[in-house]
User: What shape does this take?
Amino acid sequence: MSSTQVVPNVPDATPGLSESERIINTFVAPTKTFADIRRNASWWVPFLITAVFSYLFVFAVDRKIGFERIAQNAIAQNPKAQARIEQATPEQREQAITMQANITKYIFYAVPVLSIIFALVIAGVLMATFNFGFGAEVAFSKAMAIVVYGGLPMVVQSILTAITIFAGSDPDGFNPQNPVATNPAYLMNPVTTNKFIYSAVSCLDVIALWMIFLMAIGFSENSKVKRGTAFVAILAWYLLWKLGTGALGAAFS
Assistant: This one.
């Protein structure tokens, strides 16, 4: 007589984290959050939180600075654009500033959409880097979750920027690409400083390096890649992007 042994389904002794626990742990115990992504690669909650706080930044800019001022600052920081606007008639000058202000406004209010597109691109690039470059097997859904959770320090930047603006920062010197003093380039004059040097110095940004560190933990926890190797790989892409955009800015300014 034969008998069949039935093995009961034993639930995992370690319960998964709730969404609120994953958000909090991203700041205080990031390893726990990124380890939990192996169980659940959902990323909508941190994305929505980041989007909501990005509108705090947009609201502060709209109320205290204005998009026309941002357009004027952008023209003042670009010698070629400044030369063209000076040669225009008053009517043409007003039309150009109004058009650029409207474009800037649309871009600001489209930040959540642009952010998700940017996150998709970063997730794809980093997934390919780790999978093909280091033999990892990170699924795209996990890479996306790592990137979005790793981007949560942007909430801190949005809050700091809003506080700075409402505290009375100079509208004439406001630069939306470097809105708060989280890197040494904030103290430099973007008009008189070489664009490449300005971009290179802005690489030393506390928020950006914090996000890179978090993403390195994420990819390390979801693959066999060492944390230091992951950090260097992501940092290399960040520097390539910053220095590349800085070189383009210097070439066209």
In short: The chain has a mean pLDDT of 89. The CA atoms of residues 58 and 109 lie 7 Å apart.
